[in-house]
């Protein structure tokens, strides 16, 4: 069983990608040391551990760094295969489905949300909104297909896709206050809305998700900063 | 290539991407893209997902492994494959697909910057052996190899050498070695054919940009 000194996670509290790693560690019941990084002043350890991207999260296990959130989550599942929940299913086809939807979340869902909130033109933001609607609809279908009526993408217990999507929950909750939008609208995507409640309430999950009002505060600060820059730029 | 390495027989269907078949559209409703592997009627989509599926399903004594057994080495392999897909490929494809010269210059810069970590990675991963994964073709080898044909096309179209013996000697040697393997000889398309296709793609991208700006 790994002691706290074997596992170290370099992260930033608001990052959904870091949250994925925390969720995986928590769901597997693993102890680890968490190091909060100041992304404007990155530590030597971070730069040395992730020289290619200089990004968080980085999981350091027995001194060896693992980077990229989806790679980290799979690593945690495989290196600690005997401990706690299995995040990836054992059947190769179901594993392929899980990996497909995890890739979809990163390649299609996330970029559409970013476009909606941070698109530089109104046209781009509208396009983002359209793409987001398609993406959540597809995910609703995915949840139906993967869960087969059970509570999670992983079935009876949360699995890989639950963790990958779960990383976004903090920002999903903040979105309502920031933009008046619930990305998992119960009227349009009832399964996802119910999943978000259920997953978020899990004992291993609830304490790990960043507080919504703190996320809102950070987002408002960012928005103000961007607005000031834009105003300054146009003077 | 993954199927060849595993010695698995399969039926290959060429799709006309301007006129996609019912089978493709129903098997990959989300993306409507190739490749799609259909195994016993079950469709699997996304190239790296397919490769991992093939590796896991067709595993056994005497069958070569595409991903290593050790979890840490698997993490490293997945990291570099993701790098190829998320950092290297978009830059390189951009050279052919972006409509303006200014954007092309930017993409060329990005591509040359993106290949450098891969040159370093080869030294670390191969540990002096022939491939990223050691003695035999593995996950990162497949991820990057599939792009070599386009690197060749770009060389012919634009005179750019993204992989060269002078700037990226390890990758250049790896590419040559890989080209000599049975997998590459059997499966990789001809550069001439690819060049024709590349030209078509570039023309289509320019036309789309021109009509958009009207």
From TrEMBL, chain A:
GO CC annotations, alphabetized: cytosol
Keywords, sorted A to Z: Cytoplasm, Transferase
Domain GST N-terminal: from-to ranges: 5-84
Domain GST C-terminal: 91-222
GO biological process, any: glutathione metabolic process
Gene3D superfamilies assigned: 1.20.1050.10, Glutaredoxin
E.C. numbers: 2.5.1.18
Pfam families, per the entry: GST_C_2, GST_N
Subcellular location: Cytoplasm, Cytosol
Catalysed reaction equations from the record: RX + glutathione = an S-substituted glutathione + a halide anion + H(+)
A single MF term (Gene Ontology): glutathione transferase activity
Function (record text): Is involved in the conjugation of reduced glutathione to a wide number of exogenous and endogenous hydrophobic electrophiles.
Protein name: Glutathione S-transferase
Natural source organism: Eleusine coracana subsp. coracana
Gene: gb07279
Automatic annotation (TrEMBL), chain B:
InterPro entries per UniProt: Glutathione-S-Trfase_C-like, Glutathione-S-Trfase_C_sf, Glutathione_S-Trfase, Glutathione_S-Trfase_N, GST_C, GST_C_Tau, Omega/Tau-like, Thioredoxin-like_sf
Gene Ontology molecular function terms on file: glutathione transferase activity
GO terms under biological process: glutathione metabolic process
Catalysed reactions, as listed in the record: RX + glutathione = an S-substituted glutathione + a halide anion + H(+)
Keyword Cell wall biogenesis/degradation: no
All copies of domain GST C-terminal, residue ranges: 70-201
Family statement: Belongs to the GST superfamily.
PANTHER family for the chain: GLUTATHIONE S-TRANSFERASE, GLUTATHIONE S-TRANSFERASE, GST, SUPERFAMILY, GST DOMAIN CONTAINING
Protein name: glutathione transferase
Species this chain originates from: Eleusine coracana subsp. coracana
Taxonomic lineage of the native organism: Eukaryota, Viridiplantae, Streptophyta, Embryophyta, Tracheophyta
